[in-house]
Amino acid sequence: MNTTNYAHEIIRELRAAVEDISEAEAEKLVNAILAANKVFVVGAGRSGLMGKAFVMRMMHMGIDAYVVGETVTANMEKGDLLIVGTGSGETKTLIPVAEKAKALGGTVAMVTLSPDSTIGKLADLTVTLAGAPKDQAGGEYGTIQPMGSLFEQAMLMFYDAVILRFMEKKGLTPIKCMVSMQI
C-alpha cells in the first residue's frame, strides 16, 4: 500500500469512529464548558498534545482555558471544569489531577476509550471515543494504525467539533473569531 492509500484508510477509520460518538455526551461537554468559570485540560503524551490544541482553540473563542502543568496556568476553583483526555483512564499522573479537581469543587469531564476506568469513576461526565488502546493492535475498529493513533485523531476531531458547536451556540463566525484575536 502506498502513502495516499494509507491516508484513505485512516480517513475511513476516523469516519467509523466519529459515527459512534454520543451526541448526548458531546452536548453535555459543550454545556459544561459554557457553564464553567475556567476550563482546564490535561492529558499525557499525544493525548496531551491534542488537549493543548483544544485549549489554544478555546482561548481563540474567548474561553478562559488552561493546560494543566504549564507555567501560566491559573488556580482551579469551585465552578471550574477539568477535561481529562486519556485512552486508558488509568494514567498514573492524571488520576491525582482528577482527584484534586474534585476536592477543589471542580467538575471533571473525561474524553476516553475507557469510561469504567479509575478516572471514569471520578468523572462527572464522560465522552467515549472509538479507537484501540495503545497496547492493543486492531481493536473493535480494526485499525491499521500503531498504538493509540485512532483515539488521538478522533480526539482532535472531536475537540474541533466541540469548538464548532460552541461557536454555533455563541453566534460566533470564523471571521468574528479572527477579528477578536487580532492584537
Q: What structural class results from the helix and strand content?
A: alpha/beta
Number of domains: 1
Contiguous helical run count:
7
Q: Which residue ranges are poorly predicted, with pLDDT under 50 across at least 5 consecutive positions?
A: none
- Mean pLDDT across every amino acid position: 89
**Fraction in beta strands:** 5-15%
Which strand order does the major sheet show?
Answer: 2-1-3-4-5
Number of strands: 5
Name given to the CATH homologous superfamily: Glucose-6-phosphate isomerase like protein, domain 1
Predict the CATH topology.
Rossmann fold
Cα-atom radius of gyration: 16 Å
How much helical structure, as a percent, in the residues?
A: 40-55%
Tell me the overall shape: globular
Which CATH architecture is right?
3-Layer(aba) Sandwich
Provide the CATH top-level class: Alpha Beta
> N- to C-terminal separation?
47 Å
Q: Write down the oligomeric state.
A: single chain
Strand/helix succession: HHEHEEHEHEHH
Largest beta sheet, briefly?
Answer: 5 strands, parallel
